[in-house]
Fold this protein.
Amino acid sequence: MSRLGIFIADGCEEVEALTVVDIVRRAKLEIDMISINGTKQVTSSRNVTFMTDTTKEEADFSAYDGIILPGGMPGTVHLGEDDTVSQVIREFAKEGKLVAAICAAPSVLGQAGILNGKKTACHPGFEEKLTGAEVFFSPVVCDGNVITSRGMGTAVPFGLAVARYFTDDATIEHVKAGLVYA
């Protein structure tokens, strides 16, 4: 069974983070919410406080098949400034493991040099931060081991694309039915 990690920073967009976690778990995949704050408690950009599963200090990154970055401000800034996040996403990209980001967070992938020659999407206004990428305005863009998406309104299709990367069409159709997703 595939196992994923999602980095969570104070100031994240909670819908982008928690929707992906929910969909991935509905698809019967494992996912750990990983706080970069040194504590399992995180407060989102909309002042929603929730608990993560682990912290970056406790996480075993070798156990993950993919890593996800939710957007939100200033959460994206915090992700981009974190050395562990930068190291992990570069390592995963180099190893061909899934690296996925939504909203403003694809800018962190661009900053890390992961998007060179890749097709990507992001929140409007962050296009210039996708260094070396070809930018599309589709809700979700999949290019090899990189999945990117535009924002909170695209969190469901983004979560489904992440889950589909590790599963099959039948699983995704089952998840969609449970979500009442057209």
About this structure: The chain has six helices and eleven strands. The chain has one domain: 3-175.
